[in-house]
Design brief:
The longest helix is centred in the first third of the chain and has 16 residues, at 81-96. This protein has 309 residues and is α/β, with parallel strands linked by helices. Helix 2 packs parallel to helix 4 (81-96) and helix 7 (177-184) crosses helix 8 (199-209). The protein is elongated. The protein is built from twelve helices and eight strands. A hairpin with a 3-residue loop joins strand 6 (146-153) and strand 7. The chain has a six-stranded mixed sheet with strand order 4-3-1-5-6-7, sandwiched between helices. Strands 2-8 form a two-stranded antiparallel sheet. It has two domains: 2-169 and 245-259, Rossmann fold, CATH 3.40.50.1010; 174-243, DNA polymerase, domain 1 (Orthogonal Bundle), CATH 1.10.150. The two termini are 25 Å apart.
């Protein structure tokens, strides 16, 4: 089958920003995260590239989740200015790679990914793979038609999640991860979950009942989890709205051919020159297969560890 790669752009940019040393272009603009993103995309382009690719971005406006629950992600500190500027600049980097960019006010990148995965995941001959550092998209997994490649460490160590891998790591099916997160919460999103229920208890509840509504509906004395569960489904409705990824993000009505990956060396060569990415240009033209330290102007002496994409 032909692959459609859906990239969680904000997640990847944040990961590169924290994984790589701070760098700047010849004009003094911050570029460490952009270097990391470019390196990842170059690896993708040169090693069994997908037929179709799209990059999905968050928007700065409040999302529908924030409007429903003001505490949603409220604990996160504001992004530093040099990261914000690189998120903005990254959209053009993706476009220079020949990748279509999507964003929608009020929706997160994950919702756009869910919308595109839903739209194209059922097409014959298309397999969808999501590239992300955020486990929220694991709920989208469907057989081998929709899978998730997750960054475990840095920007090179990944694991591919299908239904079997989800079962192995969480002892749950992908669809059960929504109820699992409702039960245990998610500190990264400032979602508290159900008091007194941790991962092991949540897994035991879902292993016995399959889903949270069935567990709550069992009022028998044999339900050993009864005292820990919410007394009604209404108590968890808001959590479900926050956790379930929307599949109706207002994006353009594109066809699969509109997402064709059009990798052009000449365009990238000019971009790498402008940004001072000499080591990436060497990889682009085939002069260097090994990792070279970026030749951009560092804000402080860089000390990259290990081999990157």
């Amino acid at each position: 089958m032909e692959k459609l790669l859906l990239i969680d752009a904000n997640s990847i940019i944040h990961r590169c920003y924290h994984a790589l040393p701070p760098l700047s272009t010849p004009l003094g603009e911050p570029s460490g995260a952009l270097y990391g993103v470019s390196s990842i995309l170059l690896k993708i382009a040169q090693n069994n590239p997908p037929r179709y690719v799209a990059a999905c971005f968050d928007r700065p406006e409040p999302t529908f989740r924030k409007e429903k629950y003001k505490e949603y992600k409220a604990q996160r500190p504001p992004a530093p200015s040099d990261l914000i500027s690189q998120i903005i600049a990254a959209k053009e980097v993706f476009r220079e790679f020949g990748i279509t960019v999507f964003e929608a006010p009020g929706f997160e990148a994950d919702d756009i990914i869910a919308t595109l995965a839903s739209r194209f995941g059922e097409e014959e001959g298309i397999a969808v793979e999501v590239l992300t550092g955020d486990r929220d998209t694991l709920q989208l997994i469907s057989g081998d038609k929709i899978t998730v490649r997750f960054f475990r460490k840095g920007i090179s160590d990944t694991v591919l999640y299908n239904e079997d891998q989800v079962q192995k790591d969480f002892n749950l099916r992908p669809k059960q991860l929504i109820d699992y997160k409702i039960l245990i919460g998610d500190p990264s999103d400032n979602i508290k979950g159900v008091e007194g229920i941790g991962p092991k208890t949540a897994q035991a509840i879902l292993a016995r009942y399959g889903n949270l509504p069935s567990a709550i509906g069992d009022r028998s004395a044999e339900n050993k989890f009864r005292d820990k569960l919410p007394k009604s489904l209404e108590e968890i409705d808001l959590l479900r709205e926050l956790i379930v990824l929307r599949k109706d993000a207002p994006i353009n009505q594109v066809g699969i051919k509109d997402l064709m990956f059009e990798f052009q060396k000449e365009r990238l060569s000019r971009m790498f020159d402008a940004m001072g990415f000499e080591s990436l240009k060497k990889r682009l033209i085939g002069e260097s297969e090994a990792y070279d330290a970026p030749k951009t102007k560092p804000k402080q002496p860089p000390s990259p560890q290990g081999k990157m994409f």
